[in-house]
């Protein structure tokens, strides 16, 4: 059997490499442009951050409604990051990128496990990467 041509290798490896470009570009953008200033609704977290620093955060504050929901787990994560980083909000941006990267890995595994045509898998992972790490998701970073 003849070795695969360079074009066939690029067609096989290219989408996987391109799938890494999207998260890489977002990670670079976050590293360069994230600022250490609370944004929009993050200002509402100020009393809780202060109470964590003073050691008097209450369960009622964690359970408090925010708009139409009670974001207990996200609030716990943000407060933990605030405590570890002295509320450097760039850590939250980095954590968002890490969560999106974990999501992409899970999506890639699901695509690989459920798509019958293995030739389509890298291309579908590329689409998932492009959508997950789109500039349209800028509010998440």
Walkthrough of the structure:
- The structure is a single chain.
- The chain is mainly alpha-helical and 141 residues long.
- The protein contains six helices and no strands.
- The protein is elongated, with a radius of gyration of 20 Å.
- The termini are far apart.
Quick structural overview:
The protein is mainly alpha-helical and 141 residues long. The chain is built from six helices and no strands.
Query: What share of residues are in beta strands?
Result: under 5%
- Globular, elongated, flat, extended or rod-shaped: what is the shape? elongated
Query: What's the quaternary structure here?
Result: single chain
User: Which H/E pattern describes the elements?
Assistant: HHHHHH
Coarse structural class: mainly alpha
Number of domains: 1
Mean pLDDT equals: 90
- Put simply, the count of helices is 6
Indicate the low-confidence ranges by residue numbers: none
Radius of gyration: 20 Å
Q: How many beta strands in the DSSP annotation?
A: 0
- Percent of residues in helices: 55-70%
Largest sheet: none
Q: How far apart lie the N and C ends?
A: 48 Å
Keywords summarizing the entry:
single chain, 141 residues, mainly alpha, 6 helices
């Amino acid at each position: 059997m003849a070795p695969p041509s360079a074009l066939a290798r690029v067609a096989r490896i290219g989408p996987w490499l391109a799938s890494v470009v999207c998260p890489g570009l977002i990670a670079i953008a976050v590293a360069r442009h994230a600022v250490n200033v609370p944004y929009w609704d993050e200002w509402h977290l100020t009393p809780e951050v202060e109470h964590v620093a003073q050691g008097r955060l209450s369960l009622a504050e964690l359970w408090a409604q925010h708009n139409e929901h009670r974001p207990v787990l996200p609030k716990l994560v943000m407060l933990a990051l605030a405590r570890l980083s002295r509320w450097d909000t760039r850590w939250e941006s980095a954590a968002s990128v890490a969560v999106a990267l974990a999501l992409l890995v899970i999506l890639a595994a699901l695509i690989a496990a459920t798509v019958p045509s293995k030739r389509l898998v890298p291309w579908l992972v590329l689409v998932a990467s492009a959508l997950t790490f789109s500039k349209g998701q800028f509010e998440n970073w």
